[in-house]
Every structure is written in C-alpha cells, then in structure tokens.
Design goal:
This protein has about 210 residues and is α/β, with parallel strands linked by helices. It has eight helices and seven strands. Helix 3 runs parallel beside helix 5. The chain starts with a helix and ends in a 9-residue tail after the last helix.
Length: about 210
Amino acid sequence: MVHGKTTLLNCISTIDKVTSGNIFINGKNITKLKGNDLNRFRREELGFIFQDFNLLDTLTAYENIALALTIQRVKPKEIDNRVKDIAKKLGIFEILKKYPYQVSGGQKQRIASARAIITNPKLVLADEPTGALDSKSARQLLENFEFLNQKVEATILMVTHDAFTASYASRILFIKDGKIFNELVKGNSSRKEFFEKIIEVQTLLGGDLNNVI
C-alpha cells in the first residue's frame, strides 16, 4: 500500500520494499531485482534530483556531475565530453570549476539536474525539487525539466504540492488516501489553461494538493 508521494518514490527507487504488488519500469519487474542486478538498476537506469541538492561540498561542479560516470568506469575522455555537453545545455558550463558554496541555489539545482541525467537514465525521480528555490530559480529549473524531457528524452517523475510547479508537467496524477483520485493530461492546452484545470481538481480535493505526481 502506498500512503503518500514520497513513499511511492521510495518504492520506485527501491529504497523501500513494497509489501504487496509489483512495480514495472520499462517492462522490468524491479521488485524482483536482487544483488548486482539491483545495484545495476539503481546505478544505470535511475536518476535522482533532491530538494536539498545533495551535492558534495569537497567536489567541484564538474566533479559532482562526473561522479556517477566515474563509478561506472567510463573512460575519462568520454566523461569530459559528456559533462561539458550537458553543462552547456543547462547553462552551467562557466561554473564547472566552482564548488557548491561558490554558486547560487538555482545553479546548484542545475548541477544536481546534470548529475541526475549524465548517465542517460530511463527515469529521473524528483521529490519536491522546487521546494528550496525562489520563484525565479524554480521557473528556471522547471524549464530545464522541460528541456530534459523534450530534447534529451528523459522521463521525469516529479512529486509536488505546488500547482504552479505541476503545471509544467504533461501528465498529472492526484493521489488521495493512497489511491489515484484524478488524472490530468496537458495535451494541447497552454500552461495557463492546464494550471486552471489543476486548481479545479485542487478545489475538489478540498484545497489539498499535498499528494500530486
């Protein structure tokens, strides 16, 4: 039984084990994975973007982004090419030599985003990714997510309580009491129209937007 959005993310990321049922990602039943297969799934097929960034303070932006590829034993030249490529796409190429304490919150979030997708994961999990950001940085991050989804073809599963943040998604699932309460698909709607639809569902939920995916 899934009681909330973070619990669901934890189950999908294999941090928590489900008590019943199965989870399939790209046709693979991840609830059956064990040992090296489980480690490989986490390392190669998942990306994580945390609310508090979880960057390593002793590493530069470049080193933070490259870390996952280093663990995968990718050749240094390929690591260099991939880090610089994604940094250019996310607008952080100029700060690659800086440490986390030397850059802004929005730049930290973009470094974290680059780190999450550098391995070309099939699924990127984002738990309240805009929660610690000001409105400008939040908008930049959400626009980066759109870029990652449309241009890099990364699938992003984001949980949020914020209607504005949710309006950047193409599909929304509303969870209430552990079950899917409603679903919205953006389709050809503008973001403003989609936002208004989200508010309508929020009203049906009694103003509660605490469990939105």
